[in-house]
């Protein structure tokens, strides 16, 4: 935690003074509700939590509800009916942006801007993946002369040669997620002029020939993850039908950039 | 804090989802229990999940029924007055974060002023307003130091008697 020493064992019995109770109530109600939110979110359960307020006001209630409103859940409980099930990720047949409720639930312009931004980034990500796949196909044809541990200059020239035919479009890849202003990764048209340090060069170049040689993808295959982030899911989710049996050439650019950054700093 | 990364969306893997549900539900009910004891109030929870037919209730059916009847008996405004959902929670968290930010900004401002005050070449006329504030900061610090001196002196007095 940022400030050390905030975790102490507290005796679980009623707090003495009214103020202590009020303080405990406000703090704990907040954590309680946020934990219920997480539970709802992560497991798709439909939850309602009701809490009365301490002190002399027994008629004030706070409630928290997950996917349905609290009143709905109360009615369901009394009537013995089940509230609507939360649809799992497998059952979505369309894309998240085609969901009609998405737009009607936006209250103001900023939310629509956020959605627009997300969609733009999605598109950019996909275009990058597509280009990368094309590149790798070209690179793999000149693969036979490359060794993973070749000197940087040699690999560099080979990379340059093999990717030049794509008239500079290869350079755009490493400008990938420029929406967040990472323009330092935007390379000039003339690849030889880029001001990369040798270490960065090595990372990039070593990775490119290695991908095509290995049969495993560099996508997050981390089985320990509790769930995939939006971007990973996107790469996995064969949106444009790119991946028909060619999983080994789809690369997650996020990994790439992270490697570069950690290698640099 | 937190040993694992948590993505705030439905967990795709069924087995992990079930385990997470069980663990977090247990934790949630524990916290709810503590709240009722510490603050001496009444609370209940209803959980509908894929893992059980029908709702799971806490603490027991009778208490839930009693509380919910009372809830329903309240006028609608009172019912919805403190009804929160995830959006509201997020908004609250945002507001709390903003408040903390403001506080921190004030602190750093005060420190800045302290630095200005302690530097020796205060000649800039533009800073007049800041100088006043800096003077305030310095005065407050003087006060604190005086109190500390008093405390130490009285403490020292006690020591000498011993």
Core attributes:
heterodimer; A: 265 residues; SRF-like; 9 helices; B: mainly alpha; 2 domains
Short description:
The complex is a heterodimer of chains A (265) and B (162). Chain A is mostly helical and 265 residues long.
Can you walk through the features of this model?
The complex is a heterodimer of chains A (265) and B (162). Chain A has a domain of 106 residues: SRF-like (3-Layer(aba) Sandwich), CATH 3.40.1810.10. In chain A, 48% of the residues lie in helices and 5% in strands. In chain A, strands 1-2 form a two-stranded antiparallel ribbon. In chain A, a hairpin with an 8-residue loop joins strand 1 and strand 2. In chain A, helix 4 packs across helix 7, helix 5 crosses helix 7 and helix 7 packs antiparallel against helix 9. Chain B has 162 residues and is mainly α. Helix content of chain B is 69%, strand content 7%. Chain B has 5 helices and 3 strands. In chain B, strands 1-2 form a two-stranded antiparallel ribbon. In chain B, a hairpin with a 7-residue loop joins strand 1 and strand 2. In chain B, helix 4 crosses helix 5. Chains A and B meet through helix 1, strand 1, strand 2 and helix 2 of A and helix 1, strand 1, helix 2, helix 3 and strand 3 of B. Strand 2 of chain A pairs parallel with strand 3 of chain B. Chain B: Its main location: nucleus. Chain B: InterPro entries: SRF-like_MADS-box, TF_MADSbox, TF_MADSbox_sf. Chain B: It is found in: Nucleus.
Outline type of chain A? elongated
Assembly state (oligomeric): heterodimer
Name the strands of the widest sheet of chain B in spatial order: 1-2
Measured by DSSP, the beta-strand proportion of chain A falls in under 5%
Mean pLDDT of chain A equals 63
The whole-angstrom Rg of chain B is 28 Å
Order of helices and strands of chain A: HEEHHHHHHHH
Please name the CATH architecture of the domain at 18-85 and 94-131 in chain A: 3-Layer(aba) Sandwich
Please, how many helices of chain A? 9
Number of separate strands of chain B: 3
- Spell out the CATH superfamily of the domain at 18-85 and 94-131 in chain A: Transcription factor, MADS-box
Q: Beta-strand percentage of chain B?
A: 5-15%
The structural domain count of chain B equals: 2
């Amino acid at each position: 935690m940022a400030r050390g020493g905030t975790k102490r064992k507290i005796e679980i019995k009623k707090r003495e003074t009214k103020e202590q109770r009020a303080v405990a109530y406000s703090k704990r109600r907040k954590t309680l509700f946020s934990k219920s939110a997480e539970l709802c979110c992560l497991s798709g359960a439909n939850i309602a939590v009701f809490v009365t307020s301490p002190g002399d006001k027994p008629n004030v209630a706070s409630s928290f509800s997950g996917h349905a409103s609290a009143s709905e859940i109360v009615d369901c409980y009394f009537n013995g009916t089940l509230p609507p099930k939360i649809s799992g990720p497998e059952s979505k047949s369309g894309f998240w942006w085609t969901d009609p409720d998405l737009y009607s639930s936006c209250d103001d312009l900023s939310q629509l801007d956020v959605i627009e931004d997300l969609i733009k980034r999605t598109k950019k990500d996909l275009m990058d993946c597509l280009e990368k796949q094309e590149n790798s196909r070209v690179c793999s044809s000149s693969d036979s002369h490359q060794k993973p541990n070749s000197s940087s200059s040699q690999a560099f020239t080979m990379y340059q040669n093999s990717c030049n035919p794509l008239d500079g479009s290869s350079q755009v890849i490493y400008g990938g997620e420029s929406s967040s202003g990472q323009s330092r990764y935007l390379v000039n048209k003339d690849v030889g002029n880029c001001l990369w340090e040798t270490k960065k060069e090595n990372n990039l170049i070593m990775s490119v020939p290695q991908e095509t040689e290995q049969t495993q993808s560099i996508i997050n295959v981390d089985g320990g993850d509790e769930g995939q982030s939006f971007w990973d899911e996107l790469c996995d989710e064969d949106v444009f039908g790119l991946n028909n049996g060619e999983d080994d050439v789809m690369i997650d650019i996020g990994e790439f950039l992270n490697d570069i950054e950690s290698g640099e700093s | 804090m937190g040993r694992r990364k948590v993505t705030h969306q439905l967990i795709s893997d069924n087995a992990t989802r079930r385990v997470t549900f069980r663990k977090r539900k247990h934790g949630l009910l524990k916290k709810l229990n503590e709240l009722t004891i510490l603050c001496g109030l009444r609370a209940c929870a209803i959980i509908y999940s894929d893992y059980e037919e029908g709702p799971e209730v806490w603490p027991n059916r009778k208490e839930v029924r009693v509380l919910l009847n009372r809830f329903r008996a309240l006028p609608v405004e009172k019912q919805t007055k403190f009804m929160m959902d995830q959006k509201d929670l997020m908004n609250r968290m945002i507001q709390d974060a903003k408040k903390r930010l403001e506080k921190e900004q004030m602190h750093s401002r005060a420190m800045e002023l302290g630095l200005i005050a302690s530097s020796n070449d205060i000649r800039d006329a533009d800073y007049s307003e800041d100088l006043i504030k800096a003077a305030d900061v310095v005065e407050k610090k003087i006060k604190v130091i005086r109190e500390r001196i008093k405390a130490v002196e009285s403490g020292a007095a006690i020591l000498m008697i011993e």
